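Hi R.,

Here's the input for the EPU complex you asked about:
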Amino acid sequence: MPLYLPHFNLQNYNTLASPVCADFFVSVKDEEELQAAIKFAKEKNFPLLVLGGGSNIVLHENFPGLAIHVQLLGKELVREDDEFYYVKAAAGENWSDFVDYCLDEGFFGLENLSLIPGNVGAAPIQNIGAYGVELKDVFSELSAVDVKSGLSITFTPESCQFGYRDSVFKNALLDQFIITSVTFKLGKKPNLNIQYPALQAALVGYSPQEITPELVSQVVCDIRRSKLPDPKQIPNVGSFFKNPIITPSKLVELQQTYPDIVSYPVDETRVKLAAGWLIDRAGWKGRELEATVHAEQALVLTNPKRLKGTAVLALASAIKEAILLKFGVELEQEPRNYP
Ligand code: FAD
Ligand code: EPU
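And here is the predicted structure with EPU in place:
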């Protein structure tokens, strides 16, 4: 059985490199070990911190409970029909490696999601997205253990209630389920999505025959490397805020003062702004307090001094205040704070 390690420093288990401790830490490799860990926490009345790659959490103080590092591994083709392969991956599989595996096998649809840090099990939590594709576009079902009953439950796309950087697991079912595997519905033929502006721009000059899923993946990786810091070198959690959703009339008002403001239509009543543009335009790009606003992408806050998460939260709070004052727009934090 795995060891329950007391007073465990989580600095190497979160990409912000926050040096905080959990009262106890355990790594689980199968469902039996996961069930045992849940039981251990219940008996001691410990809150749970479910850890994947730690790339979307802000640990600001010691965690008074049990951190469970989900390391269930394995991937398999579970079935196929005329159009799709259904590929199941265990929660502890590294996301980026899984994307590469699917490309190699000719399971298409994940190419725009190349190089996103973290593990498969966390991907549905915020419905990860990049370059015009979200997890929900390729999702078939997932299995998760109910923390209260210990039962394993299957979730369909509808029951996950996916939204922009959102799912039922961040709302009504917060902290109630631990995801053990996710099944994806992947095309037998490529069906490329290259509308995202930066992707489109990078593909100018290629003939339609040259634009393959492999090329799209390569280009996405190149764009990401050009602006997003590698957490191993400069600790960060990717975008620190969601892109805010506003009304079309608020956009018209902002356009009077800022005609070049970046926006994307969502539907008839909603428009999305680029939070990175707002922070950049407000003069925060490259600014340093204890934490830093990344010089290539103002939506990314970094923690070069490897301080506790409180450092980055102080910077985030100053930015939120400045954006509200300048644009009248409220920013919402994307990564989750613990404890
Ligand atoms: P963790 O940080 O370990 O956990 C995140 C949340 O999910 C926590 O609340 C945790 O408790 C919960 N959780 C984790 N595993 C499970 C499980 N098995 N069951 C239940 N709950 C679980 N995100 C995007 O959407 N698009 C991007 O383009 C993107 N780019 C990024 C770039 C960088 C450089 C970085 C550092 C992050 C980026 N992110 C992006 C954010 C992050 O990669 C994703 O949110 C990712 O899915 C987090 O995975 P993780 O395993 O690291 O999750
Ligand atoms: N921009 C600026 N200045 C900046 C940053 C951005 O002007 O400092 C402008 C860009 O020029 C562009 C627009 O803002 O016109 C959008 O920038 P970008 O294409 O880099 O994407 P983003 O909106 O900042 C979102 C996601 C990323 C995802 C990319 C690509 C959110 C919160 N973030 O970033 O996801 O990789 O699009 O799809 O939706 C994450 O969630 O952690 C993450 C990195």
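One thing worth noting: The chain has a mean pLDDT of 98.

Cheers,
M.
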